[in-house]
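Entry for the shared binder. Reason: the reviewer on the internal report wants the predicted structure included alongside the sequence.
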Amino acid sequence: MAGVLGSVLGAPLTAIVFAFGLTHDSNALLPLLLTVAVAHGFTVLTMKRSIMTEKIARRGLHIYREYSVDPLERQHVADLMTTAVVSVDGELPVCTLWARHFGEHAPHRGYPVVCAQRVVGMLERNALRGREASMEAGRALMAPLQPHQVLLPAQTARIAAGRMAELGVSRLPVVADLVSMRLVGVVSLRDLLRPSGQVLHEETRRERLRGAAAA
């Protein structure tokens, strides 16, 4: 009974405690541990999914191996943001900004703009294209920054992803607080992909074990 419970539910420790609590037989503890370990190990090596969801998976419907929280809900902006940020001075003329940061071999397509130690927006390459010779200040090309256009370190990665989708951008500045607007980092779409990559690694690990066992 403990072996079936441990393998079906994927909870070997619970099965051991449950069976021992019913029998109170210390002489059966060692066989109990061995039985549950073998049953759970067999299930892990032969089934990609839980027995409770295996039939659904065979129908071609994608499901997670285990019930889990959205990985973006488990990560905060402070954990994912890039802190070594290159910012640009919004008081510089557009021609200077283009020459310094948006040339042919520029490492980034956008930069946070800072004026008087306050973030005033994100300047993208497309906003400057065609104005390479302009002497207009860079900040003049941007609309006034709104609170929903910046992120705070304590916010979740899910909020960051939602903000990017709403605004149609691929990166957002992170500020220490909405009063000082002091730049502390930048979050990009690439940063938001990291938690999902970790979950994918966990989801495919059992499949690799199964393949190794079959070989």
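Summary line for the report: Residues 207-215 have pLDDT under 50 and may be disordered.
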